[in-house]
Write a structure and sequence with these properties.
Order of helices and strands: EHHEH
Number of helices: 3
Strand order of the largest sheet: 1-2
Shape: rod-shaped
Helix content: 55-70%
Distance between the termini: 124 Å
Structural class: mainly alpha
Strand content: under 5%
Radius of gyration: 29 Å
C-alpha cells in the first residue's frame, strides 16, 4: 500500500451541509412576547383580567409557529413558545375557575336571601 503525499481529505459534515448564503438561526421575537403575555395571563388569571393577555398569547403563538415552520428551522424559540402557551392556558383555566366560583357564591347568596318584601310584624 502506498500513500499519496498531500493534504488528507476531510469528511463532509453529517446531515445537511449548511449553505454559506443561509441566514444564521435567530430567536423569534414573538416567542418572548408569547411567554411574557402568558405569564401575565397566568398571574392575573384569578382576577379575570388574565383572559385578554392569555388570548393574545395564544394567537401570537399560532403566528410564531407558522413563521418558524416557514423559515425552515432558522427561527428558534420553540421552548419559549411552549412555556408561554402553557402559562396562557393556565391563565384561562384560572379565569374559568374564578367565574365558576363567583357564580356559585352568587347563586348561594341569592338562595339564602328572603323572597319577596319583608314587612314588620305589626303590618297587615
Amino acid at each position: 500500500m502506498t500513500t499519496v503525499p498531500g493534504p488528507v481529505p476531510v469528511a463532509p459534515p453529517l446531515g445537511h451541509p449548511r449553505h454559506p448564503l443561509d441566514p444564521d438561526p435567530a430567536r423569534a421575537t414573538k416567542a418572548r412576547a408569547v411567554f411574557a403575555l402568558g405569564l401575565i395571563g397566568a398571574v392575573t388569571g384569578l382576577f379575570v383580567g388574565g383572559v385578554v393577555p392569555a388570548t393574545v398569547a395564544l394567537q401570537l403563538a399560532r403566528q410564531a409557529r407558522r413563521e418558524a415552520y416557514g423559515s425552515g428551522g432558522f427561527l428558534t424559540g420553540a421552548a419559549w413558545l411552549r412555556r408561554g402557551e402553557r402559562l396562557a392556558w393556565t391563565g384561562l383555566v384560572l379565569v374559568a375557575v374564578a367565574v365558576v366560583v363567583v357564580l356559585v357564591v352568587g347563586v348561594v347568596r341569592l338562595a339564602e336571601a328572603p323572597y319577596g318584601q319583608d314587612f314588620a310584624p305589626n303590618v297587615d
